[in-house]
Design brief:
Elements lengths: L10 H23 L2 H13 L4 H18 L10 E5 L4 E3 L5 E6 L4 E8 L5 E3 L3 E4 L2 E5 L7 E10 L5 E10 L14 H32 L6 H27 L9 H8 L2 H21 L5 H17 L3 H4 L3 H31 L1 H34 L4 H4 L1 H32 L3 H27 L6 H8 L3 E6 L3 E8 L4 E11 L9 E8 L4 E7 L8 E8 L3 E12 L2 E11 L2
Parallel strand pairs: 2-9
Antiparallel strand pairs: 1-3, 3-7, 4-5, 4-8, 6-7, 8-9, 10-11, 11-12, 12-15, 13-14, 13-16, 16-17
């Protein structure tokens, strides 16, 4: 078939090509000079183009909506603090020798600080990890007054969690101030860094794969792909530094400090950045290296994109990981295949239709399988993360997912139209259809960028799965007296129907064969009369109380009446915190 399609190159198009070439050279120099913000700005101007400006308004609106949804007024927790020793608000007769924090999942401590009543901060550097509990040595005898145990840890999904516990020695005093304000500037930097990292991985490495495997010798879009990869190479280390700042709760001005980068590398996101840098390097090598190894480098880079996403994050941290990590890997690689091919294909269709015909044919043949894989893996991951349909509206994570689903609906609809209505005539050489396909691909690119923005917003929102795990954690208390002691667990540890389990022992940890155990919960400050329930002993040595309802949250007093014999009863009690 003879192609005879000629379109004059406008000055606008020539100007875009010049801008792209200048940008590649500028990015190379900026990587040495450090002017990252200028590189980001130039890439944004160059990538947006001048013929799709009317769609930028829609993209901007989507990103503004994202900012509103993804910027809650308080920081969300990814691992929940279950119990503390001393308990929050406890008043102790003497200084404790040890402090402890128990979480809903294993964590890694970042910063542990004890703030005395006069505001003096004492770093707590001696601690041990015992399962989900951090056991902290108290370095000195504490005086009277209210102290604050401030903690900051990394949860299993790689995100930092922080908080404070107050306890008093002798009598309470005015609590020293501990700031936990949300750093909006840092959160914006984290979001922007993640978006540009996605650009580098999906549009850059994915574009390199498309050029090597689908274009097969064609070089349309190569300068754009190199620019995207260079942006990713800048964004990846910056994102690691932002992660370190967030982990330590430090401001942006401390970005250059070595401890910040060590903290970032110590999180699971550190692996994501390291693998992403390798993937970006492989993608760039496939474009500028020897032609003989381009396909192998591009394929390895595409695999690296999936591996980078699977190394950290909400989805990869979910159980069962034998399922979730491969799903994330396939999902990430599929996104890179689809999104990466769009810009090179659009430019080939615009300027080199003869070259674009086999490119379009290969892409259209493979995209059906890729879309099916993306849909299957996305559904599986969404079910694991959301769990209940109500969470789509009740949580920030769910609302972001709804925004993403709406964008995906438009994307899939547009892609289906391209595949079933425009691809055939475009391959046959119909000039007007080719122009329509180029415009449609440009719109797809904008929708993809908006989806990147939504996905980056998940960095600040724990999935409903994690919230459900935290909500299901029991409230625990250990009661110790010379005559008897007990471990009391109320599950779940929040208001509503609960069940209690009680393990009783003698004061020296020996077995205690009681005839009867009664649980008494009281909260006089709320005007609630004591709730008494007799415990049963099914046969496993643990006393249980079922059918119990805790009506209000807060600090309750839990008392155990232990009938040892007809003539001896021991009563022991301690405060226990019930969550809302």
């Amino acid at each position: 078939m003879r192609w005879n399609i000629r379109r004059p190159a406008s000055s606008c198009c020539r100007r875009n090509d010049l801008l792209a070439a200048r940008f590649v050279r500028k990015c190379a120099s900026l990587l040495h000079g450090g002017d990252v913000s200028a590189a980001f700005l130039q890439w944004t101007v160059c990538a947006a183009g001048q013929r799709i400006g009317r769609f930028a308004v829609g993209l901007l609106a989507a990103i503004v909506l994202l900012a509103i949804i993804a910027a809650p007024s308080q920081a969300f927790a990814h691992a929940a603090l279950v119990t503390t020793e001393p308990a929050d608000g406890a008043v102790l007769a003497q200084s404790p020798a040890q402090l402890s924090l128990t979480f809903s999942e294993p964590v890694s401590p970042l910063v542990l600080t004890l703030v005395r009543p006069d505001g003096t901060a004492i770093p707590l550097t001696s601690f041990r990890l015992n399962g989900q509990t951090i056991e902290i040595d108290n370095p000195q005898t504490l005086g009277s007054g209210t102290h604050v145990l401030s903690w900051r840890v990394i949860s299993a999904d790689g995100h930092p969690v922080g908080g404070s516990v107050l306890f008093s020695i002798g009598a309470p005093s005015a609590a020293p101030a501990v700031s936990e304000a949300v750093d909006r500037g840092l959160r914006s930097a984290i979001w922007i860094g993640k978006v540009f990292l996605y650009v580098g991985l999906f549009l850059g490495v994915g574009g390199a794969f498309a050029i090597a495997w689908l274009a097969k010798g064609g070089r349309s879009g190569q300068r754009f792909v190199i620019a995207a990869i260079l942006c990713g190479l800048v964004a990846a280390p910056l994102s690691l530094g932002f992660q370190g700042l967030d982990a330590l709760g430090a401001p942006l001005v401390r970005l250059a400090q070595p401890g910040v980068w060590r903290a970032g590398l110590g999180t699971s996101f550190g692996w994501t950045v390291l693998v992403a840098l390798v993937a970006l390097g492989l993608g760039l090598l496939s474009l500028v290296g020897p032609r003989g190894g381009a396909k192998l480098s591009a394929l390895a880079g595409l695999a690296g994109v999936g591996a980078a996403l699977a190394a950290s994050g909400h989805a990869s941290a979910a159980e069962p990981q034998w399922l979730t990590r491969p799903m994330v890997f396939l999902h990430g690689a599929g996104i890179a295949f689809w999104a990466g091919a769009l810009r090179p294909l659009g430019l080939a269709m615009r300027w080199k239709p003869v070259e674009a015909a086999p490119f379009l044919r290969r892409f259209s043949q493979a995209i059906l399988l890729v879309v099916a894989m993306l849909a299957a893996t996305g559904i599986v991951l969404a079910i694991i993360q959301v769990q209940a349909p109500a969470a789509l509206l009740e949580t920030a994570y769910g609302r972001l997912l709804l925004v993403k689903l709406a964008l995906l609906f438009f994307l899939f609809t547009l892609a289906a139209t391209n595949r079933w209505k425009l691809t055939g005539p475009a391959e046959a050489g119909e000039t007007e259809v080719q122009r329509r396909l180029v415009r449609s691909i440009a719109i797809e690119m904008l929708i993809v960028l908006a989806i990147f923005g939504v996905a980056a917003g998940w960095r600040f929102t724990p999935p409903p799965r994690a919230l459900a795990i935290a909500a299901a954690q029991p409230a625990l208390v250990h009661i110790h007296t010379p005559k008897a002691m007990a471990d009391l667990s109320i599950t779940p540890g929040h208001v509503g129907p609960v069940a209690a389990s009680i393990v009783i022992m003698t004061g020296d940890f020996g077995p205690l064969d009681a005839e009867q155990v009664t649980l008494v919960l009281s909260k006089p400050d709320s005007g609630i009369e004591p709730i008494k329930r007799a415990a049963t002993k099914p046969g496993d040595g643990i006393w249980r109380v079922d059918g119990l309802v805790v009506p209000v949250p807060g600090r309750w007093t839990a008392r155990l009446d232990i009938l040892i014999s007809d003539f001896e009863m021991v009563k022991i009690e301690a405060p226990i915190d019930i969550r809302p």
